[in-house]
């Protein structure tokens, strides 16, 4: 089964962007970790990043036909995008929302995520490990669906 790992705006700057919050490892490092985790779980993955809201929505729509599950860090669009939430609501496959930082510990405008209304599950505050855990959770969900 194919899992899409989608990263939203500014996550291309990982490693240099507010390292005290997001750490010093890069998006490339993150995607390598995801690929290694997926391989261990017997999942195929495709990692993508975009700064464009519409592009993220198009990728979520495409997941309807292509993927068995989605891991998504919608970054700033989590807190603003009804359109992205609607695209996720239209999916019938499991979607895990991930945030590197604990958004509940930060500014109040980060406490609400539209995407969480539509996600199967949400992980935040665990850094890169959150993506690994999201892939493990998807693997479990897909196995349960199989039996
Ligand atoms: C983030 C948290 C968001 O509030 C922020 O806009 C981001 C990254 C995270 O991974 O912690 O860009 O999604």
TrEMBL record:
The active site is at residues 22, 99. InterPro entries: DHquinase_II (IPR001874), DHquinase_II_CS (IPR018509), DHquinase_II_sf (IPR036441). Its EC number is 4.2.1.10. It comes from the Bacteria. GO terms for molecular function: 3-dehydroquinate dehydratase activity. Keywords: Amino-acid biosynthesis, Aromatic amino acid biosynthesis, Lyase. GO terms for biological process: amino acid biosynthetic process; aromatic amino acid family biosynthetic process; chorismate biosynthetic process; quinate catabolic process. The record marks 17 as: Transition state stabilizer. It catalyses: 3-dehydroquinate = 3-dehydroshikimate + H2O. Substrate binds at residues 73, 79, 86, 100-101, 110. The keyword Membrane does not apply. Pathway: Metabolic intermediate biosynthesis; chorismate biosynthesis; chorismate from D-erythrose 4-phosphate and phosphoenolpyruvate: step 3/7. Belongs to the type-II 3-dehydroquinase family. Homododecamer. HAMAP family: AroQ (MF_00169). Catalyzes a trans-dehydration via an enolate intermediate. This is 3-dehydroquinate dehydratase. The gene is aroQ.
């Amino acid at each position: 089964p194919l899992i899409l790992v989608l990263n939203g705006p500014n996550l291309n700057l990982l490693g240099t962007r507010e390292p005290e919050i997001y750490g010093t490892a890069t998006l490339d490092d993150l995607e390598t970790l995801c690929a290694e985790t997926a391989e261990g779980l017997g999942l195929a993955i495709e990692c993508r990043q975009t700064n464009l809201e519409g592009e993220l929505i198009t990728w979520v729509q495409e997941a309807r036909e292509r993927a068995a599950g989605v891991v998504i860090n919608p970054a700033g669009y989590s807190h603003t995008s009804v359109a992205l939430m609607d695209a996720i609501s239209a999916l019938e496959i499991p979607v895990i929302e991930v945030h590197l930082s604990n958004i509940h510990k930060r500014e109040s405008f980060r406490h609400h995520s539209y995407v969480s209304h539509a996600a199967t599950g949400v992980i935040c505050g665990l850094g890169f490990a959150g993506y690994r855990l999201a892939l493990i959770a998807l693997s479990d969900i897909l196995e349960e669906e199989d039996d």
